[in-house]
Write a structure and sequence with these properties.
244 residues; seven-stranded mixed sheet; Rossmann fold; alpha/beta
Amino acid sequence: MTRMEKDEIFRDRSDFIGDFNFGENVAAVFDDMLNRSVPFYQEIQRMIVEMVNDFAADGSNIYDLGCSTGTTLLNLNRNIGSKVKFIGIDYSEDMLARCRKKLSEDHFTGQYELICADLNKGVHVENASVVIMLLTLQFIRPLYRDKLIGSILRGLNDNGCLIVFEKILGEDSLINRMFIKYYYDMKKRNGYSDLEIAQKREALENVLIPYKLLENRELLLKQGFRYCDVFFKWYNFCGLLAIK
């Protein structure tokens, strides 16, 4: 199996911090980055499998939009009993290269397709029982989010679901600052230095644009989802389940 390389991208002080991107340097350490930067990441993965099992329908497609290195696809393939096709979409060829390698090494048994595409330009979804956006919507430019969610809804079968997990803003600026502090404390516990946290924050400033929880929920309901509820909440992170 591919060895998990340690995330040290922002370890050394830099005079210039460019915008965060998902090229080879990030793809190489992305699995470690998620495990150390996303609260309860393994539990989130388990919960996604649990929910997908209830919605996956034989003969349908399951989409992972922003599939990165394929961790979610691997977990689904190992645990989903339904006969489905997995479709992973990501705009980074470097991420997809890592994904293909991991799926091959794991002897991925399910039918699957990996597509390189920019979700800012829309997405074609069809015959879907489940669509997953794990830390993906926050990287879509706000101008394009309504259109993207509308396309996903149209491609979902009746009673299909969209699972969204996001970094979010607090409803109040004071509470928002508190939650961010608690989050950075978590990152420090997981071995990141103050410098690493500060430099990554600067790199993400113009790239990751979070909404408030209620703004995300309103976005989903406005596009026509019948139901939408929170399945996970930890300070400034939130998971939403929306049903067509």
